[in-house]
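PROTOCOL LOG
Step 1. Enter all chains and additional molecules of the complex.
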Amino acid sequence: MNFISLLNKWYKKNKRPLPWRKTSDPYNIWISEIIFQQTRIEQGTNYYNNFIRKFPNLEKLALSTEDEVLHMWKGLGYYSRAHNLFFTAQHIYKDLEGIFPSTYSEILKLKGIGKYTAAAIASISFNEKIPAIDGNAFRVYSRFFNSEKDISKSSTFNYFFNLMLPLMPDNPGDFNQAIMDLGAIICSPSNPKCIICPIQVDCIAYKLNNQKILPIKSSYKKITELNIHYAYIKCHREILIIKRGYNDIWKGLYEFPKFKDIHEIYKISNTYTTTHKLTHKILHITISEINLESSEFYTIAKALNATILDKKQLKLYAFPKPLDFFLLYN
DNA sequence: GATACGTGGTT
DNA sequence: TAACCAAGTAT
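Step 2. Run joint prediction.
Step 3. Record the structure below.
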């Protein structure tokens, strides 16, 4: 039996019962694929369930607002995913008659969808024979073929893509998901469980005992540090918030007004500091609480073009994690 | 092709 | 603990 048959047999018995596997509707598959970009199953599963409950189909998503979508995405990270998801839902609804594109090349044109996600949707929802290469697949293929190519290079993606393309079986969706499940359950990054691997017999890295040093991945991310000083401006139960732009972190989320020298102007009644670590930067955040009389409060709200928010309405707005945490106790 | 983009779990 | 990493994409 070849490795594809062995893998298929293994997958039928061992596939994980994940919620989005109950359907092949491209809408559901699309949502799941976006949520799970760079995101663990354990972290994203509740988000998937909540998202589908709130937006059960493409029309419901397209007719919502970006703030509603961001609110469902709050805490998940990589917020451009939510921004692009909403954009693409509206594009399909308005320009494509609400019909999800059905081929790899058409799906690839959609905003927020790259080569991996397009292949996943095309193979799972439309049975197109196209390899979906994510981090799991990179690892499995690197070991199976004993490849020492650097998986952070785009040329390596093309290498595996072209290698697997002619090998794709008649059930490409199951095959792609089987590779991913194998990578998650058996062919794990550290301590791969080669002893119980269904395709061990054909795995060249196992034969050469290279499984622990593969895949090769060059990576060095420079971490920068940044100070952010927020003014938490209050008037009784009302506070000021501002929506962030799209060129930086926390795209489209809400935050407090930012100041450099707020202490020189107003009286600070409380100060809260925290350190928040992203993958690529460390944020030193200071939040200064300032209580104002209503006339001054409304004047500064206007000057800052800030949104005045009754704290009872907090649930309608998406805040980044550290501010969400702060608001929980203030 | 290199870098920016979150959050939380693992080693 | 710091580094690494998880169903990647846009620029």
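Step 4. Note key features.
Chain A has two domains: 3-208, 224-328.
Strands of chain A lie at 224-235, 238-243, 254-255, 270-277, 281-291, 307-310.
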